[in-house]
């Protein structure tokens, strides 16, 4: 018997992105699924967008007060009818065999939760493609950390994530965290004995940010969230989480070495790193303009994430502040 799927989308504004997502879902080869749209207190009316698809897709629409994506997904999950909950962000586009491949993978790879990769669509602009490279590259904080040989340790992300509804309910769904709620859920699943898997046939096209300023703020918040997650899940702390902070500090030390001692040994390593990113990005994207932008977005990602991580680590571990006091915007106020 094939698995049954409920797609849950928590959305705040992003009317145009919602149209593109729903349009991609109309083209599915397997049309047996429902869609739960949870409007998380948007300022704009999303009903007109949804009405365009009500006769084509099995859609349920709900509007609620703003609480952040995690709790909004919980709201949608309670109203889903099917066995599996599939969470996607409102700014993704899926391939026509997305649902079909999910069902195939679930049957072939037994698990309690799964995730897939994200990639850049050919229609994305150059900056979107550069940022997509930075967010998925092995030279940054991105990259796929799971594979067929290590399915039990892949951390699904909520832009492309599936969980058995009964399992989701057993662990209480997403926490009150507004940022980092998806790795928090993944580690909570592990702590309760559940397994996760990486499905390599269900990648989505993820738009992410198209402005470097907004991208910097986003990855800064991700960096702030990681020490909070380390406190909540100490068994899954990795030294590699601190790499962006060390990268940032090393760069500063390199400039001090250059101006005070007249040597550029440390900066030489950063020059090599820059060349490696440029060369790798050129191979991956096959476009020199995107590769050049990818170098810039990669440094922005490393510095912003690194600063956020270092700031959060000091506040939580040196000054001993509670996460809710140090970063009140990272948590939903009950």
From TrEMBL:
Source superkingdom: Bacteria
Protein name per its UniProtKB record: Glycosyltransferase, catalytic subunit of cellulose synthase and poly-beta-1,6-N-acetylglucosamine synthase
Keyword field contains Mitochondrion: no
Taxonomic source organism: Chryseobacterium polytrichastri
Record domain Glycosyltransferase 2-like: where: 6-169
GO molecular function per UniProt: glycosyltransferase activity
Alphabetical keyword list: Cell membrane, Glycosyltransferase, Membrane, Transferase, Transmembrane, Transmembrane helix
Record field: transmembrane: 241-260, 267-284, 290-310
A Pfam family this chain is assigned to: Glycos_transf_2
One GO term describing the cellular component: plasma membrane
InterPro entries, A to Z: Glyco_trans_2-like, Nucleotide-diphossugar_trans
């Amino acid at each position: 018997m094939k698995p049954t799927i409920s797609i849950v989308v928590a959305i705040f504004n992003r009317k145009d992105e919602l149209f593109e997502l729903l349009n991609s879902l109309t083209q599915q080869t397997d049309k047996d699924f429902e869609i739960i749209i949870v409007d998380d207190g948007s300022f704009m009316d999303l009903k007109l967008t949804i009405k365009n698809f009500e006769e084509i897709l099995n859609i349920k629409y709900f509007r609620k007060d703003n609480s952040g994506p995690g709790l909004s997904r919980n709201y949608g999950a309670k109203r889903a009818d099917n066995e599996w909950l599939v969470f996607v962000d409102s700014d993704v586009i899926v391939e026509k065999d997305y649902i079909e491949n999910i069902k195939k993978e679930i049957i072939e790879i037994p698990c309690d939760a799964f995730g897939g990769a994200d990639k850049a669509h050919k229609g994305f602009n150059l900056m979107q493609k550069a940022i997509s490279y930075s967010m998925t590259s092995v030279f940054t904080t991105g990259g796929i950390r799971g594979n067929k040989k290590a399915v039990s340790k892949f951390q699904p992300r909520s832009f492309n994530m599936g969980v058995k509804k009964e399992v989701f309910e057993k662990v209480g769904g997403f926490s009150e965290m507004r940022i980092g709620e998806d790795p928090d859920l993944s580690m909570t699943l592990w702590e309760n004995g559940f397994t996760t898997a990486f499905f390599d046939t269900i990648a989505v096209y993820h738009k992410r940010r198209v402005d470097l300023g907004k991208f910097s703020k986003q990855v800064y918040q991700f960096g702030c969230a990681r020490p909070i997650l380390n406190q909540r899940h100490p068994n899954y702390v990795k030294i590699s989480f601190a790499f962006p902070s060390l990268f940032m500090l090393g760069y500063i030390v390199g400039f001090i070495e250059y101006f005070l001692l007249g040597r550029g040994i440390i900066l030489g390593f950063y020059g090599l790193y820059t060349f490696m990113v440029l060369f790798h990005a050129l191979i991956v994207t096959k476009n020199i303009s995107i590769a050049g932008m990818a170098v810039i977005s990669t440094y922005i990602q490393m510095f912003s994430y690194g600063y956020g991580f270092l700031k959060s680590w000091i506040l939580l571990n040196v000054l001993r502040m509670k996460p809710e006091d140090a970063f009140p915007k990272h948590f939903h106020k009950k």
